[in-house]
Amino acid sequence: MMKATSLQHTWIAKFLIGLVLLLGLQTMSVNAAIIPTDTVIQTEQQQFTKQDLLQKLESAELQQQLLEMGVDPQILEERIASLTPAEISDLNNQLEQQPAGEGFIGLAAFLFVVFIITDALCATDLFSFVNCINR
Fold this sequence. Notes:
mainly alpha, transmembrane helix, UCP029543, transmembrane, membrane, PA2779-like
């Protein structure tokens, strides 16, 4: 009789362990949402555009022009990395309208204007001659 209860306890213990494992696995669910194709495409284009801008920034000619304007290329690199999708779209539109060969000068001029605006809005502090409007 003692042997029968020991076997019953072993069987019950195995059953309960299996039940706990089974219920534990079922409660772990993955919360994943469907991402629309347009969102994926926009994200990929945005990342590609940022990479493109950073590659253009590596140009010695552009870096020289930026230094002549008083812009530190390292700070500009950080600013490009933090551009919003709207700013990137704006930049893409302006670059598309530029004739071939004028992209570097146009890009430098556009970035110069963007940084003057961000300095005026107190978002950056690149130029000493631009006063923050909130001060």
